[in-house]
Amino acid sequence: MEKIPVGIIGCGYWGPNLVRNFCACPHTQIVAALDANPARLEAIGRSYPFIKLVSTEEQFLDLGIKAAAIATPVSTHYALAKRCLEAGLHVMVEKPLASNAQEAKSLVDLAERQGRVLMVDHTYLFANPIRLIKKLLDEGELGDLYYIDSVRINLGLFQRDINVIWDLAPHDLSIASYVIAAEARSISAWGCAHANPDLEDIAYVNVDYADRLMASFHVNWLSPVKVRQMIFAGSKKSLIFNELNTVEPIKVYDRGIELGQSAEERHKLMVSYRSGDIWSPHVDPSEPLQAAVTHFAECIREGKTPVSDGRLGLRVVKLLEAATRSIRAQGGRVTLSSGVYSEGTSDARARRAG
After folding, report:
1. Engineered SS bond to 144: which of 44, 235, 243, 318, CB 3.0-4.6 Å?
2. pTM for this prediction
3. Please, what's the b/e burial string for 305-344 (b: 16 or more CB within 10 A of its CB; e: otherwise)?
4. Does residue 11 contact residue 33 with C-beta atoms inside 8 Å?
5. CB 341, CB 351: distance < 8 Å
6. Is 196 within 8 Å of 168 (Cβ atoms)?
7. Which of 162-176, 287-301, 328-342 is predicted with the least confidence, judged by mean pLDDT?
8. What is the pLDDT of residues 157-172, one digit of tens each?
């Protein structure tokens, strides 16, 4: 089969990674790169002289490409993705999908009307450790999931157009959405701004997924150390994913509590503690972005729905938007529904504050 002609929009921080991986993918061929910065285009041209370098959307859309990958600031995602979809292109967008839920839903609806693939580059969903975590959860290895505790902190990189939640939390929110396949019921968030008074650089986000499952996410641009860790605690076992441990990224702990079986024992809260083995399953090394790019191409060719499709991207944007509203309401809990928000008291307070 012929390779899918692809164009890259945005050649800044993430764009060159997309160029490299689309070039390496056996199903795709990079035709064009679009950026308004001549120096960035020049850098791409030196490494990939066969790519057509353009500076306008009109030139880009006139080159006969079939798919576009967008790696530009969040505020530009909607307009660029909309134009590409309207031109009949399949689209892969860097996370988050859009700067608000209304725009994200509009893109989802447009892609469906156009019959085109819309995929969000939630790269972690294509990482082997995350895939293994989902497999273990689906097989009941951890039992009933009690909570998720996530820490994603480092020193920088400070963004100029989005706060730390919109920058870092999409990774972990998308992971949670993927591995547990559950809709969030409510969310609350607290944050502070230090470097820029308009953009929070440290935040704590709490998500209620119902059925006694809660998740906590700590994101931070001010930490003196880099931490990338998620804990998945269940009734049978618990699991720790440490992204920075490339040798043993996952450890499963046979540790927890056991409640008494009789009504009297439970009434007296008879609790015993279990401390068993620690297991580090083998995880094959791979490049998640290459897997994501290949998946995008396969979805185009086979008409499949991407793992990180527009609807998952929309769910993440809803959570990000609700978390920002909660911060503006000084931590007021925002109740979510199948729409964007329900009309609960906490939500109304968040709406007024936002």
Report:
1. 235
2. 0.90
3. ebbbbbbbbbbbbbbbbbbbbbbbbeebbbbbeeebbeee
4. yes
5. yes
6. no
7. 328-342
8. 899 889 999 999 999 9
